[in-house]
């Protein structure tokens, strides 16, 4: 129940795996500009810049260390996790 997707050449060059289990696939729904005005693909994933892969604006706080570290992140999209 896996599918091989045809990926953009930039994604293949970055090493993105092209086989996904069917439970992970969803129908593509384009951005809703009323709900998310001005949201661009480049805010989530910058394909030209290898260093911007994770698209983090900055780290707000952290606790713990090594494998138990937890970070609060402000993403370039404006979300905070």
From TrEMBL:
It comes from the Eukaryota. This is Chromo domain-containing protein. It comes from Ceriporiopsis subvermispora (strain B) (White-rot fungus).
